[in-house]
Amino acid sequence: MRVRFKVKHIVLYVLLPLLLISSTAYVLMMPQVSSWLHGRTNQSLAEQRSELLEDLAKASAPERINIIREKVIGSGSSYTPFAFDVYIGSNSSQWGDSSESDSPLKPTERIDLLNEYITQSVPGYELEEASQQLVFLYDSLGQQKQADQALQQAMAKFPTPSEQRSQLAVLQANRLLNEGDQDRAKQAFEKIHPETLDENTNLKAEWALLHARLLYIDHKADQALVVLTDAIKELKENSSSSGSDPANVSGYTPLIRMQQTIQAAIQHHEYAAGTVQGTLKHSDGTPVAGAGIFLIAEGDLNSYSSNASDSGPYHTMTDAQGRYAFHAVMPGFYQLRLGLSFQQVDGWTWQIPADPWIHVNQGKQLQQNLILQPLIQLKQPVNDQIITDDRITFSWQPVQGAAYYELEGGIQLPKGSSRSVVKGNIRTPSTTITAEELYRMSMGFSYGSSGNFESVVPESILSFMNPNVRLSWNVIAYDSNGQLISQSNGYRLTRESMGSLPFFYLKNRTLTTADRILLDKKPEDALAAYREALAANPQDVHALRMLTRMLSTRQSIMENTADNDEYIELMQRLLLLSPSSQDASVLTDYYYRQQDWTAYNKYLELYLTLSDKEVTGNKTALSSYERSTYAVALMGQNKLQEADRQFKLAMQQDPDHRFVGSYIANRLYMDRTLESALTLAEQYPQHESEQTAYFWTNLLQDMQAERTHYSNSDLYDQELQQKLGWYVQGKEDRLKQWTSHPTTHTPILQKFMKALLEVR
User: Fold this and answer.
1) Both 427 and 411 in a single domain?
2) 305 assigned to some structural domain
3) Does the N-terminal peptide bond of residue 161 adopt cis geometry, omega within 30 degrees of 0?
4) Disulfide: which of 486, 651, 684, 712 matches 373 by Cβ 3.0-4.6 Å?
5) What is the structure's pLDDT at 233?
6) pLDDT per residue over 698-733, tens digit each?
7) Cα(184)–Cα(619) distance, rounded to whole angstroms?
8) Which residues does 605 contact at the CB level (< 8 Å), separation at least 6?
9) What is the domain extent for residue 690?
């Protein structure tokens, strides 16, 4: 069934971080990888290292200090601790801006030179920078004691008080707090002189965050809020006087996030920090040392920065045994993100948990072990194989522990690529599909910055039906619990990890006249040509399919539904001539939004048949989105008990609990008690980037308070039941009209109903 996504999770598919190998050269897609491989192949980094060490050996003591300052420490902008080649999270993957792998020196060599600089140099910015780099290197090697000693040595060289000394003290206190040494963290904090921070807004924000965390773990949450509130107020005042936006100051958002976190903790009577720890290992048990581990708070998941300070206070590195730990973690919901070098990620993929959310509460110590799995090796079709048959067999190496596989197909566009699930629930490491099955697959569409129909990318509409486009494929392995094990798509950067490339061409049809017009970037003319072809031959499935895609694309781009009746009629004809689950899902979705339950049930049944799915039983289960919308449809047909059952199953499938608002409304309408609804809200917090996970819990608690203070609780219950009836029965227009006029009698009830209208 087609899923209509909210702009919530930005997933960047890394379809082509792939190296095309010939006998004489490496050709690469991404400049960062190209630079890394260049260093591997022509030994330029080794040459740089030899030259640098030779210069140092010949230099006098003062000259050595200058060389270290220029060539090892570098400018401040050239070095960022916790910067990695690749960042991988549960919902995104990004390339880094820089990496320690760019340094020609070995870590131990850099450590010796940085120690020399700290010992011999005079206080200044470079000394502070050298100290931070040295601490990062020690930590990356699991040598925390040496890092502590280096910081103490560096701080002793700065006068008391001074901004640089305070900067290093903030770093030291944060490290100790994250390591779980609260007493020493407090001692380090006491060495900070706040008056030295006035000229450094970012450092002042870091100090306030550290102070708030220390107060919170000392059971002084109210005082922590005062510190944060004062820091935010001061930052706003400074920004106002300079005419700038406080949101553009890097320390502002972390302060706001921490303020919200502590406010929520107080509201839910949470006064103890927790611990998140674990290991990062390969599937064979080999530890991954020196990898970055980031614990990202829910509100920060959709932002990305290579600067660790922008990702919140929780970042660390794995030691030689692959271990990591975060102590003094504030209550809330988090996800993990990895920072890896090209060497670490080459040929591997992270086995991301089916439920990536980590709930820190009640001071619990949580264990989160992370596993890197080898990428799946592909057999056929590969290496730009040309297929002219009507059937395509995909095969790959079996994966240990896999219960089933999912096949994705992709197309290369002039700028970028696109892919979609072609077939699921594959029980063996191979499957055969027909060319017609691929032709039925719509990949969405792309269009230019002008935002009009004429800018549509033709290849995105023709999709697999274009014999001249390069196709790709990916296979994903799952265990019996639906947990992703591995996939074939990923970072393959060397001859050893490359394997066969997942590209092929499907050339068993020729382009029609209308296709050529479309590829000539004349979509309106192509639309007319497809109409003519269909008029000439009403059985022309290709013309019919392209006509539906063109009309749908134009409607979406131009936000004009004038052709909608024609589009639906053509979709119905297409389903009769060439039945496909994807097209059946389009009509199911359309009638779901029209609340035409007779038509919805008809096309849902067809969709289930064509996709070999069913609501219950041993066939492939509905996705969480499909099951949630099915539950809403049942609710609209007054089948409340079955709707409640389907909602519960959907919540168990969807870790984000996207439709929990509708579940709450259905249960509340049946049981007529806020207590049962509140239980659901607490059990299934909704993870939505635009609101806190406690949104529904807080709202229902506020409704309980509003009901208590209402003049007549029975009348309140009657109004609540009436408004819920409008929602359950699909009378959204009536509900929208009521919520558009603010009321002073039941403002929380009105806010609750307004929130229900946003559930999609």
Assistant:
1) yes
2) yes
3) yes
4) 486
5) 94
6) 999 999 999 999 989 999 999 999 999 999 999 999
7) 58
8) none
9) 622-757
